[in-house]
Specification:
The complex is a heterodimer of chains A (about 160) and B (about 425). Chain A is α+β, with helices and mostly antiparallel strands and about 160 residues long. Chain A has three helices and ten strands.
């Protein structure tokens, strides 16, 4: 099986376009904008010069998509999964989060969802087993372990603006 | 009332109304440029709300607006972009100039205008609006289309041609003799060539000199450098806009990126002021008499642009549909037509040139996005479905890509 190759075309004033033709002769291309955004294009069957789909992605969305496309990937933010139905996820607090500056006890996380917060990653350090008096800050990444439903609920709570 | 208070009130009212108009335009997804022009008409002489005190500041703001428009345009491109496009696409550029500048010139002669106004109107009808076109292509999801590089390279060539054309206009408007004019042109070409050469060779060095981690310092250095070079260029009769464009070309890489982000809001503000200024100097009452010539010119130059795009895309080996799309996309004229006409308006030649250019741009900035969208479906319908009837298309889709594959490889690799 030959290695698929990307050809690139400069788009002056916009960025560059990278093309890929798949084994099934479908064309895909990515337009790399100079501001870090990307546009993902798939071409029509009846007119290979024209896009049937053209989706503009921000740098963050692009990163998430790359994650999903990686062969080693299973599901978002997953650290590990067990056969016992427990999952572990990294959940990031946004900088405008409601919890910015509030203590961990206020989230009533364990009571509400049954998940445990194993550690908090802040800049270059990791704080293991934070207690209820631990003060959260925007940008913190919380590692939570629980059931699938529990982790989903925790993500909802932590996602509060 | 105190004069500075009056100025603040007037200028504030202008900017605020522009902001509200911009929001209105955003809601309907069309370019705010025509609205800014209309706002200028409303505030100007013979308009609804004539302004007095802020005229002078608006004039200076307009001057800065043109400089920033061209600087940002230069920042969009690297010197190697320009040179490589010039090498590969010059026939398309020449055809573009011939097909689209000539109708403008012919119209000016029909109206009995002088030679200078003729050259100006030729420029107005020649240069497409890269801003409007880039936005339209993004909105229609066509950035990935195969005809897009063709469209962009025509825009690049037009912008490069501006660097030669604007000094000529500036010299003509200043009424210099043929000898002095030729000297100006030689200087302009020499400087442009030198800047391209230096940017290609030593672009990194220039960028390092300008580069700064602190956005504030970067902003001041880039803006100061640009205004200074623009001023010197104006003094040499080369046109401030071209000086700014060349500064933009000379800056590359990270500096260009940073400067682009920092200067975008400034450009938006002053470019809006420039469009208002242009409207201010146009008496609304003078538009109706030139409406018919403007419409005729718009129709003719829409068709010539479509032909240009069709031919250029054909030359690049793109299928019929893509050729029509390329043509339709190129129709929009906008900011640069106004920049060219603005030079003539400030110099005070041919009183009906401003109104004609205003009406012309108003028509084409509104029609442009529509032709971009509908030229291809219309043309496909009119030229008949030689390929296959739509009923068969649905069943044939599986077999089609195979048949097209050789074409695909032949052209996609050319880049």
């Amino acid at each position: 099986m030959p290695v698929p190759r990307l050809s690139s075309t400069p788009l002056p004033g916009i960025g560059a376009r990278y093309d890929l033709t798949t084994r099934e002769h479908r064309r895909l291309s990515v337009v790399a904008h100079r501001d870090g955004g990307r546009t993902l294009n798939a071409y029509r069957n009846d007119d290979p010069d024209e896009c049937a789909l053209s989706v503009k992605l921000t740098a963050g969305e692009t990163a998430a998509l790359i994650d999903a496309l990686m062969p080693s990937h299973h599901s978002p933010n997953l650290l590990s999964t067990t056969d016992l139905g427990l999952v572990a996820e990294c959940i990031e607090l946004s900088s405008v989060s409601y919890w910015n500056g509030r203590v961990l006890g206020d989230t009533r996380m364990r009571t509400e969802t049954g998940v445990s917060i194993v550690a908090v990653l802040r800049r270059a350090e990791a704080i293991p087993s934070p207690g209820p008096e631990f003060r959260l800050a925007g940008g913190d990444i919380l590692i939570v372990i629980g059931t699938r439903e529990g982790v989903e609920a925790a993500a909802t709570i932590l996602g509060r603006d | 009332m105190h004069s500075s208070a009056v100025f603040l009130i007037e200028f504030g009212a202008i900017i605020l109304s522009l902001g509200l108009l911009g929001r209105f335009a955003g809601r309907f997804h069309f370019s705010p440029i025509p609205l800014y022009l209309l706002a200028g008409l409303a505030f100007g002489e013979g308009g609804l709300l004539p302004l007095g005190t802020s005229e002078e500041f608006v004039a200076i703001g307009a001057e800065i607006g043109v400089v920033l428009l061209l600087l940002m345009l230069g920042l969009e491109y690297t010197a190697s972009d320009l040179v490589s496009n010039l090498k590969t696409q010059y026939p398309a550029g020449l055809l573009d100039a011939a097909l689209n500048a000539l109708p403008g010139a012919a119209m000016a002669l029909l109206l009995g205008w002088g030679p200078v106004a003729t050259v100006v109107l030729a420029g107005v009808t020649w240069i497409s609006s890269s801003g409007v076109i880039a936005k339209v292509m993004g909105d229609l999801g066509r950035l990935g289309n195969r005809e897009t590089p063709v469209i962009l390279s025509i825009l690049v060539l037009e912008d490069l041609a501006m660097a030669v054309y604007l000094p000529i206009i500036t010299a003509l408007l200043a009424g210099v003799s043929l000898a002095a004019g030729s000297l100006t042109l030689a200087i302009a070409l020499g400087v442009a060539g030198l800047v391209l050469f230096v940017a290609l060779r030593y672009g990194r060095v220039i960028s390092r000199f300008v580069s700064s981690d602190d956005p504030e310092k970067l902003l001041l250095v880039v803006l100061g450098l640009t205004l200074l070079v623009a001023g010197i260029a104006q003094q040499l009769q080369v046109s401030a806009a071209v000086g700014a464009f060349l500064v933009g070309i000379a800056l590359s890489g990270e500096v260009a990126e940073g400067a682009h982000n920092l200067l975008s809001p400034l450009r938006d503000l002053f470019a809006a002021v420039f469009f208002v200024f242009f409207g201010l100097h146009t008496d609304p009452a003078s538009i109706p008499p030139v409406l018919l010539p403007a419409l005729a010119l718009a129709v003719v130059t829409a068709c010539t642009k479509i032909a240009t795009g069709y031919w250029a895309a054909k030359r690049a080996g793109i299928s019929a549909k893509g050729r029509w799309r390329a043509g339709g996309t190129l129709v929009a004229r906008g900011e640069f037509s106004i920049v060219i006409a603005g030079l003539a308006v400030t110099a005070g030649i041919e009183p009906s040139l401003g109104p004609l250019a205003t009406a012309y741009v108003l028509v084409l900035v509104i029609i442009g996005p529509l032709t971009a969208r509908y030229t291809e479906p219309l043309a496909t319908r009119l030229t008949g479905r030689r390929k296959q009837p739509p009923a068969a298309r649905a069943t044939k889709t599986e077999a089609l890509p195979e048949a097209l594959e050789p074409v695909d490889d032949g052209t996609a690799r050319r880049a």
